Amino acid sequence: MIRKNPSGDLPVISPDAFVDPTAIICGKVIIEQNVFVGPYVVIRADEVDSNGEMQPIVIGHDSNLQDGVVIHSKDGAAVNIGARTSIAHRSIVHGPCSVGDDVFIGFNSVVFNTHIGDRCVIRHNCVVDSLDLPEQFHVPPMTNIGPGFNLNSIEKVPPKYSEFSESVVTANNMLVQGYKKRSNEF
């Protein structure tokens, strides 16, 4: 469902993107080309700051938001998702937040009030809250990162996880084309 927010903003979605019919895209949202938005995704840009202003939620080209992902923002803050980024099933990205290019955010993870650098891999059931991650960090499963966390304890992304992340992007890019071909059959 594509709908306006209370301020009257309507999402801008590339005709080359695929948005599942069960997804809800609301408000000041920009979805670039070849993005896959899976079943039951919610992207909601509807809150304003104290001046009545709102920054957009932007989903970069060739990215994928898998089943049940939620993206929202507090007080009209910006959310930027980079290019070729994968956000896996049931994850939450809450603004203010920016996620770099070629990032993988694993199943059921939460990212809030942070910047995630390019080529980071955040595995399943992680929380990254109020502490920025530099490029190419690997966050092991079930890790909670916040103020005071020692980033030196985190290794760079091992090659096998970079390859996995790239394969997820490739698979979901193929889904965009496949679902778009099938969309007229329903």
UniProtKB/TrEMBL annotation:
SUPFAM superfamilies: Trimeric LpxA-like enzymes. It comes from Vibrio porteresiae DSM 19223. Coiled coil: none annotated. It comes from the Bacteria. InterPro entries: Gamma-CA (IPR052265), Hexapep (IPR001451), Trimer_LpxA-like_sf (IPR011004). Pfam families: Hexapep, Hexapep_2. This is DapH/DapD/GlmU-related protein.
